[in-house]
Amino acid sequence: MPGLNPLKIIGNLKFMAAGLKLPTSASWRQPSGDPAAAHYGEALQPHERVALPRLTPPWFTPQNRHKYHQQSCDDIGEEFKKLHDGMIDAVQFAHNMWRFQAKFQNLKVMALSAIGTPGCLDGPSLQSGIKTAPSCAAFTGNRAKYRDAVAKGVSTAFKSWQDNVMVPGLPWYPAFVAFPGPQAPPMPNVPTPLIACTSSRLSDITAPDTMKREMIGALDSELKDSDPDKQHEALFDAIATVLALAFLMWLPMQQVMLVLGKGPIPTFAPPLVPAGPVVSGDNIAVSGHLMV
Fold first, then answer.
1. Phi, psi of 192 (to 5 degrees)
2. 187 burial class (0-12, 13-18, 19+ CB within 10 angstroms)?
3. Domain coordinates of the chain in residue numbers?
4. How far is residue 253's CA from residue 243's CA, in Å, rounded to a whole number?
5. The pLDDT of residue 47
6. Sheet harboring 261-264: ordered strands across?
7. Tally of CB atoms within 10 A around 134
8. What is the CA radius of gyration of the chain?
9. The pTM is what?
10. Are 274 and 87 in contact (CB under 8 A)?
């Protein structure tokens, strides 16, 4: 089964909806009065007074529609878009690595049912995988600070969901209801959508609020203080919105498979009792339960 399938265009539109302008509101005042207004108008050639955005959809809108403000919006918007798309790709990469290593552990098998308490889903942290993803591993300077904030924020939210995943008595082992032997050998579970394994922190990855908040909290304070227009918040909101939708689509598509359950049949006593249910069984915790 596929991993995350993020729709990056939604993040583009989400950022555009924030209505951010360049130059920033703190640094720009439209010239007015005499002679400032006249001088400002005369400084521009006729063909420079109106320009169209090169980037579609535009990430920033100009304070004034002339060529130079529009060029600033295009250039800076392009950098923000590259950062947004690169971080989405990095999370997708790290999530795929996580799927290959994730496993269910410490399950209790009782006849048909498998029961797992919070913490039964085990897997590595996404943070290092995001930081070392090919799309962003070479980031330096402020881009690296944004990368690290996204990595920590997404990893924190994802681990919160992961640590609270349960297996709520799912009917995974029908053969264990009446098994003809003293010990049931390892047998795979009935494939089940991952969303059936409930988590009390599901909203941490399927709604953008938690991821956005964690990213903002992880960003370097100097960057936040030097951003009066809160451009970083709009960027994190866009990234979190794309990822939340991707996780929401992934959960029902991802199949839990090859969870090998086993256990004793204490009531087995042939010839009077030739078969019986598995009681207090467990599972073999090996990676690969979410890899297909």
1. -140, 140
2. middle
3. 8-42+51-283
4. 15
5. 66
6. 183-187, 261-264, 282-283
7. 10
8. 27
9. 0.92
10. no
